[in-house]
Please model this.
Amino acid sequence: GTTLAGAATGHVGKAQSSDATCALCHAAADIKVYHRTENVTPHNPTVTPGLVTFTYEIDSAAVSSSNDLTIKFRINKATADASGVLGTATPVTFVTAAAGLANPVSGFTGAPGFLLAYATDVTTTDGIAAPIDYNNTGVAQAQAVSVSLANFVNTTHANAANQSLSAPDASGYYTATLKGTGTLKFPVGAKLRTVGLQGYFTQVSPAFARHAVAVVKTVTGDTARRTVVDKEKCANCHEWFEGHGGNRVKETQVCVMCHVPGLATSGRGATAAQLKAYAWSTADKKKLTDWGIDSTTFGAGADDALKYPVTTNNFKDLIHGIHAGRERVTPFMDARNRTGTQTLLDMRRMDFPGVLKNCETCHVTGTYSNVSSSALASTFEHINAAYATTKTQVNALASISATSVSSTDKVTSPFAAACISCHDSVAAQSHVAKNGGAIQVTRATFATNNTTAGGGEACVTCHGTGKSEDIAVKHK
Model:
């Protein structure tokens, strides 16, 4: 069909002047089929018949005195009937472990996996003894340790001697064990230890990726990482949010396990060959042009990636920057490089579908007026000795892959990072800096401010709860 303007509608019954006759062809039950997606959501309650929907559970996570980690978990599955309605969910049974086995559930390829996030003392580098953010010390780019469930059924996996999977109990719960003698574990003495279960199976027939909502569990006895964002509030706009190809679904407490304060953009580590060979879309070329980069010259110089923006991928900065969209003076810009795949974010054409200053559109009440002095600084650029000296792409790549922080990193203090993600004008940033905020200073400077009497951010003096410029009041 066509509209009066001649644009195709895709409606075989042609364009209609009103909705009065819709019910002549479309029964209420049919509409659910026309608009169904691959996942059951509140607004899309049916899926293709025969599709399996998985749900994840972590009942408990515990660490023994010998640093062995045990995770009691269950994965349930429900199959859609001929109408696309899910049946009763039942626990999954994994296949018997064997050499080289890659698929733990019959009829499905791939597997979800565990994420292990934690915090360690960073007094010597940041002046903070007990961080309230994950820092995942010792792992490249401060990422959470990742353990695929497939590895538990592969008896010849590199870490097989240090991991095991029990038989299921009467309720279908398995216990996965990661021994403290292996490489996949929590460091001794770590705090905020948390286990996530994320990722997905792919169904063989009918062939669909079966993305599932991620879950998290704090290790018994540890303090849980604070919850700042209410995922159900996020779902008011992003009904079924999927990140990283569907590996992270909906649960923002999983997002912060990897998008930690120490995570800077990876784009500046892309090789010249990767940039030259990449099939840039028209939209990407436009973004590059807006950034002052000519994609046709990629490959002419070894350090092309250093033209990319410098930014942090800390969750707070990333999400604030994205949602602020065109309201910022300078839009949020970020380039990510994953095995040669270039992902460019440029939010200059983004409009927030609500009242931007209303923090509680996303935030849990009471989580945005004060920022703890134990929060970590956002890393904008990791600068090790080699990169500081040469400023070449080769050393940038080595730098962003580092397993430790550097005193010369460019960082922004926690309260400042939250504010300037939206309030990024020169005047606003000047105000923040005059009141103790550190904006892209060296990590050494940040640490010194933290440990100096009377130093550090003084934002709460005016903007804290009950103060003259209370953020909670100003952002209503």
